[in-house]
Amino acid sequence: MMIKSYRLVALFFFSFIIIAKNSKAQELFVISEPASIMPTRSVMIKQSYQQLGGKMNSSLYNTQLEFSFKKNWMMHIGTNFTASEIYLQNRLYSLDDIHSHTRLAFFLKAINSPFQPNTDAIMIDGQEKLWNAGFIATRLDYKWASSFSAGCLHRLTANSKYAKNGIEYIWSNGWLLYPKNYINYKQTNINFYVECIGQQLINDKTHYLDIAPAVQFIFNSQAKFNLGYKWPITDNSNRLNNKSLYISFDYLFFNALPKNYKSKKINH
Question: First vs last Cα of the chain: how many Å apart?
Fold first, then answer.
C-alpha cells in the first residue's frame, strides 16, 4: 500500500511538470522554505491560522517575524502564544541565469513547547519541543519551480515511549497561473502549489506522507495571502492531527533594516 501511494504521488507530480511547460515559475512556497533568501535588509510579518483535524480537532494561531540581515542569511522567529520557534537559513550555493537559477541552502530550526503529545510521529507544528536541521535544493526556470528539502528531526520531550529521531522530507512545486505576461510588479499574482510532506522515524516503522495543494495571491509584490489544505496519502502513525486547513497573510517591508557601513581607514 505504501509503495502504491508513492507511485501515485510521482505520477501526480510528473503530470503537473508537463502542465507547467505552459506556465511561469513561482517559488514562494506555502508550507516549505526554498533555498532562496528574502531580499537583503527586508522584514516580513506573517500571521497564520491552522484548523487541525483527525483524531482530535484543534486550532493554531501563529505570529512570525522574518528578516534577512545579510545577503545569504535570514532568520524567522515565531510564536503560537504557547510555543516559540526560531529558524535560521544560510544559502550555500547559487547558480543564476536570466530566467532560471539553482540554489542550495542549510537550515536549522528549534521549537520550544510545553506540550508532550502522546503520539509516535514527531509533531512539527509547535506541539512539542524539538530541533530540525537539513538542506534545501531549489531549481527555478522560466516555467516551473521545484524544491526538495530533507533534514533530521530530534524531539526533546521526556516521553521515552516513542522514538526520538526521524527524517523529514518535503517536495514542493509551484506555478504562476495569472498574469500570463508581466507588465509591472504591481500586478496581482495568482499561484498554485502542490507540496508533499513526509516523515520517517529512525529505528521505527512509523511513517507518513501528506499532500498539500494551495493557492496564493500576491498583491503589489509585498502582500501575500495563502490558502491550502493538507491530508495524508499514507500514514501508519497515531497522530492526533493528520489534516490541516491553512490560512496565512504576510507583508514584506523592503529596506527595513539599516545598512552595515564598513569603517574606512584614513591614511595620514
Answer: 77
Parallel/antiparallel/unpaired status of strands 101-112 and 144-155: unpaired
| Lowest model confidence (mean pLDDT) among 5-14, 91-100, 244-253, 257-266 | 5-14
Residue count of the chain, please give it. Answer: 268
Residue 167 host element (H or E): strand 165-178
The structure's pTM equals 0.86
Digit-coded pLDDT (tens) for 37-56? 889 999 999 999 999 999 88
Query: What are the phi and psi torsion angles at 22 (to 5°)?
Result: -110, 20
Class of domain 2-253: mainly beta
- Contacts with 96 (C-beta within 8 Å, 6 or more apart), sequence order: none
Which residues face 40 on adjacent strands?
Answer: none
Task: Give the long-range contacts of residues 228-235, CB within 8 A, separation 24 or more.
Answer: 228/30, 228/31, 228/193, 230/31, 230/197, 232/208, 233/5, 233/8, 233/9, 233/196, 233/209, 234/1, 234/2, 234/5, 234/6, 234/207, 234/208, 234/209, 235/207, 235/208, 235/209, 235/210
Cβ–Cβ < 8 Å for 74, 37 = yes
Q: Residue written as cell 505552459?
A: 22
